[in-house]
Amino acid sequence: MAEIIDGRAIARQMDVKTRADVEALVAEGHPAPGLTVILVGEDPASEVYVRRKIKACENVGIRSTEHRLPAETSQDDLLALIDRLNRDDDVHGILCQVPLPGHIDARLVLRSISPDKDVDGFHPVNVGRLSTGTGGIVPCTPLGVMELLRSVIPDLTGKSAVVIGKSNIVGKPVANLLLDAEATVTVTHINTHGLPEICRQSDIIVAAAGAPELVRGHWVKDGAVIIDVGITRMPGEHGKTRLVGDVKFDEVQHARAVTPVPGGVGPMTIACLLANTVQAARNLFE
Ligand code: GUN
After folding, report:
1. Is the ipTM of this complex over 0.90?
2. 242-263 per-position pLDDT tens digit
3. Which part of the chain is the Tetrahydrofolate dehydrogenase/cyclohydrolase NAD(P)-binding domain (predicted)?
4. How far is the CA of 219 from the centre of ligand 1 (A)?
5. Could you confirm whether 53 is annotated as catalytic?
6. CB-based burial label for 45 (10 Å; 0-12, 13-18, 19+)
7. What residue owns the CA closest to ligand 1's atom 6?
8. Which pTM does this prediction carry?
9. Spatial CA neighbour of 98 closest among 163, 168, 33
């Protein structure tokens, strides 16, 4: 049977370390790291995510501030708020929840956040730093993927990895992180030919296509490690819905290890956001 990689447990371990890092900063005479979350409008899913992020901050001793703005907020007013937060020394991390209302250019807004406070790691400066292996803040989900992988394979040198999906928020940054870790990386996408064969040759499969149960058992070689980033809501039994990953979980029990959905990558994302906030604060203090 494949080992189930317990994202919830690994996220809790990360939180313990983050709390200790916060306490160490405070012991050095610094203020506790501060995260500001901006939510524009009333998207119900975003409200749930923001609430979770704020609660997670409390849990590790990060100060959090929330700016809730009405859906009709102008782009200029949002940019003015971010400008103010960029210059506020008590704010170490800024996160503007997306999606934003249609009249606001999300790319422009995300680029207006200071790269040093961009705890999402979405700013082109941080993307550039990651792709050149020169530090910067790494996006939370890719960071979580690497933590989960390293819990099974501490040294990725020379491993063959396939990253399924080339999105800017998961596929490309994961590929860069794997390259930095000295893995040999293939990135595939919707127009890739021979995906099953590429997977069969890989020691590591990171599935981030958003295609439910795409990866089948016969695509996976014995002893491979699988990180499933996909999460799609599907109709389940008795009129309920169920969450499905990009991997047909029941068919991959000959793998060495696999993440479940839910309970794999998902819980890691907030833990990595907290770690990024502490890193941003430490960098700003230095
Ligand atoms: N909306 C859904 N996930 C995220 C995230 O990780 N960061 C931001 N800013 N918005 C999101």
Report:
1. yes
2. 999 999 999 999 999 999 999 9
3. 139-283
4. 31
5. yes
6. exposed
7. 120
8. 0.97
9. 168
